[in-house]
Amino acid sequence: MGTTWGKFNDELKNQAKIKGVPISGQFELTARCNNSCKMCYVCKPAFDSEARSKEHSAKEWIKLAEEARNAGTLYLLLTGGEVFLRQDFMEIYNELSMMGLRIGIYTNATMITPDIAKQLGRIPPSRVEVTLYGASPETYGKVSGNPYGFEHALHGVDLLLAEGITLDLRTTVIRDNTNDYDKIAELADERDIILKVVDYISPRRDCGTPLSDNMRLSPLEMVQYEKYAQENYIKRMKKLQGDKFSALDTIEDRSATNSNKYPFKCSAGRSEFWVTWDGKMTPCGLMEEPATLPFEEGFTAAWKGLKDACASIPVCYECRKCSLRYICFTCPARLKNETGFFDKPAPYLCEYAKEKKYSIQA
Amino acid sequence: MKIKGGFILRSIAGSWIVVPIGQRVVEFNGLMTLSDSGAFLWRSLERSAGMEELVASVLGEYDIDEATARLDVQEFVSAVGERGLLE
To answer: What is the value of pTM for the model shown?
Structure first.
């Protein structure tokens, strides 16, 4: 019982990666959402009956979770779409919470009612992450198509916090909400919660709708945004924590080491998996392939098939040889979505790495 | 002595981890790691066991002397007790 949890957890995840144990996974319970965000890749309309008819039942998700737990899953994130659109979400959650899993929930929080918050408060998830798409009804509406979403989301956040639930705020940045960072950060500070920023928008994983480059930030804008957010974060943390705060903690390491033979830098397909709403197991949420079918073949066989398939994804040797690879966030999923190929450098990512280098040099 | 209900001892990637389940999460929203001998004692305490019984079971399982076994058991029981995990 002696070591610190952080160190132990790192070692546990490392061991899972070495041994191929699926320690961490995500269940995408639905593709339906009450928002229709411009940049989202899992956003069928809330009342899409066809999408609803293809969703797996609560019983099926619960059985799959049991199989995943038996295979070694410890961390399980429930996501969508918007999970609270499922009438049976609490049934799934309550069953899963008895399995010995650490459960997280991604939500936009707009559908959180006092009753749902209370139910979650009785068996709190390890964490809830709420994405806020703007700091005003106007911006939120512009991004998500739901002008009432801002007010509803904040109300949901406050209901969850009132139940003592651990909650992080996230924001996904596109051109429409770039200028809202400071105000979103203020909303997080007022509630004493962490704000996470997602500023890279991938083209849709199913390549269904081409991504407009006018919608996402340019590589230069991304670097500038990250710099601003980083400086702002350090300032806010120093104000909140004084001398106790170490800016070193905020530096993100995008240069995770990996073997030259394996295409992923991260743990996708080695100790992490994703199950899509329509029942495919993929390495991560950005990927459509490789995929196996856990509901048909069982979790263990699907996980083995996925690991094998991931190991044979072609490596982008140009990226591997690139001098900017340590500041680039290239990966097979992003390359495939950006270029259509796993092993072809993506101009958007290359440009980002160059701008990042200039920014660091400056 | 007995471990409270609402905890599951799991072996994951070569490590022993205690995970709270259901409403137990309200009072213990975290994870706990155990050594092999800790997991052995935990399992005994899940079934309920007294100090002497625990010492005897440790002596039966591990090649150590009684004084060391007793000390290990005492340390484990007090650590678990301090965390409020005993009935």
So the answer is: 0.92
